[in-house]
């Protein structure tokens, strides 16, 4: 059986500078492309891919689309928010800066997956779509372990009533994940929202890292924090999983 390597990489240990300091893996950011590629090479070397282009990232669009990764796809990244593979040496890299990264593994079937679950994608069913794609590839959800990575914490995630209404229209069970804030504002627990969806999907085990990307400034990039500071852009951290050959 193939071994599995994975990691939730924060913002430390890279080569980027300024607001991207330092392990920015975001291909779509305005960071220097050479710095991003150096950072991606650092992570791909740690995970153990043969080439940096064997660490795949999608053009993430907050969708419910999960795809099967069978080979490196180069600079023309497919638009999707979930990836699945059963091929050793192909690393799946989800990019986030507050959204929820989820890594999946079925060791028995040697199938892995990863998804980017922002609130839109989570509500639309990206976690469930990734699980379904894993099962199409030979996995069994009763054997899938999932890990929910660092994301924005509830106290940092202030939303309005229209946001709450939209979530509850698609997930009526999520009312207790909104804590009242000032005025008509709420604080939403997206981490538990994603965890609950994974549990409802019938997986073998769901783990949660429990780190607030907005609060832990030295450890993680955060789009919400970028907005608070009025910065022009932000870096992206990577959550990576790979089957060893």
State the end-to-end distance: 9 Å
As for the CATH topology, it is: CNF1/YfiH-like putative cysteine hydrolases
What percent of the residues sit in helical stretches (DSSP H or I)?
10-25%
- Give the count of structural domains: 1
Low-confidence segments:
none
- Give the tally of β-strands: 13
CATH class assignment: Alpha Beta
| CATH homologous superfamily identity | CNF1/YfiH-like putative cysteine hydrolases
Cα-based radius of gyration, to the nearest Å: 17 Å
Q: How do the strands of the widest beta sheet line up side by side?
A: 3-4-7-6-8-12
Strand content: 15-25%
Output the structural class.
Answer: alpha+beta
Shape: globular
Mean pLDDT: 97
Q: Spell the H/E element sequence.
A: EHEEEEEEHHEEHEEHEHE
């Amino acid at each position: 059986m193939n071994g599995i390597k994975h990691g939730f990489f924060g913002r430390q240990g890279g080569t980027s500078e300024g607001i991207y300091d330092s392990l920015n893996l975001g291909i779509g950011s305005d960071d220097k492309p050479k710095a991003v590629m150096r950072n991606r090479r650092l992570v791909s070397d740690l995970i153990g891919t043969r080439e940096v282009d064997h660490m795949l990232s999608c053009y993430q669009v907050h969708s419910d689309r999960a795809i099967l990764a069978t080979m490196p796809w180069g600079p023309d990244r497919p638009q999707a928010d979930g990836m699945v593979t059963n091929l050793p040496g192909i690393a799946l890299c989800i990019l986030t800066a507050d959204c929820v990264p989820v890594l999946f593994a079925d060791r028995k079937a040697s199938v892995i997956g990863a998804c980017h679950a922002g609130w839109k994608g989570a509500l639309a069913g990206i976690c469930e779509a990734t699980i379904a794609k894993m099962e199409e590839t030979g996995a069994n959800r009763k054997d899938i372990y999932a890990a929910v990575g660092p994301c924005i914490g509830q106290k940092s995630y202030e939303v309005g009533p229209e946001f709450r209404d939209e979530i509850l229209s698609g997930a009526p069970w999520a009312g207790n994940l909104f804590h009242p804030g000032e005025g008509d504002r709420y604080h939403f627990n997206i981490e538990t929202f994603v965890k609950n969806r994974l549990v409802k999907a019938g997986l073998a085990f769901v783990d949660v890292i429990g780190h607030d990307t907005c609060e832990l400034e030295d450890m993680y990039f955060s789009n919400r924090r970028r907005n608070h500071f009025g910065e022009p852009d932000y870096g992206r951290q990577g959550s990576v999983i790979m089957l060893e050959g």
